[in-house]
Design a protein that fits this description.
- The chain has 108 residues and is α+β, with helices and mostly antiparallel strands.
- 39% of the residues lie in helices and 28% in strands.
- It has a four-stranded antiparallel sheet.
- A hairpin with a 6-residue loop joins β2 and β3.
Length: 108
Amino acid sequence: MPLYLSRFSYTPETWTRLIGHPEDRAEAARSYIESVGGRLHGFWYAFGTHDGYNLWEAPDNVSMAAVALAISGGGALSSFETTVLLSIDETLDALRRAEQIQYRAPGT
């Protein structure tokens, strides 16, 4: 199954609610991805541009998009970005296929 890296940030209101009622949001994240047949591999909070990161496994892009849309539409986040992660083998396959594409730079 494909892996996905998500970066998210909470709204100030969400932080206020979590300060008043701390909870392990990894459990919520786990239930969201498991509802589409996936798996949560990790949930981390961070300092910097984003408040947290998730590593997910989902059956396909549509399943992960459904989870991302449900979370984004919930109103607790100010940002939610997801990146599809490629394995080394997938990247090597893409590199081999790229050699067959006859790219032409703009204006040439």
